């Protein structure tokens, strides 16, 4: 399954869906036993590299611990990837000729 090639909008929608799945543990707490490793695996499929692996560990811990499920980890990772950590284009230097 290759999710890393999805557009950023599709990744956001999937992230919102996966965060909503994490909220199911408030209704049925034992689902965390299945959802914690599944969410970590999905995070590594959505985001490759070192940041994806770190996010997977954070997601696993967040889903495994009780009452931390309110943190929208997939959405936060999307924000980190596409809003806060976007590659900046080099600025052009303006040379003042006198």
What does this protein look like?
This protein starts with 7 loop residues before the first helix and ends in a 14-residue tail after the last helix. It has 98 residues and is an all-alpha fold. It is elongated. The chain is built from 4 helices and no strands. Helix 1 (8-22) packs antiparallel against helix 2 (32-46).
Features:
single chain, 98 residues, mainly alpha, elongated
Mean pLDDT comes to 85
Termini separation:
59 Å
Question: For the CA atoms, what is the radius of gyration?
Answer: 17 Å
- Order of helices and strands, N to C? HHHH
**Estimated structural class:** mainly alpha
Q: Estimate what percentage of residues fall within beta strands.
A: under 5%
Shape: elongated
Which stretches of 5+ consecutive residues score pLDDT under 50?
none
Q: What's the total helix number?
A: 4
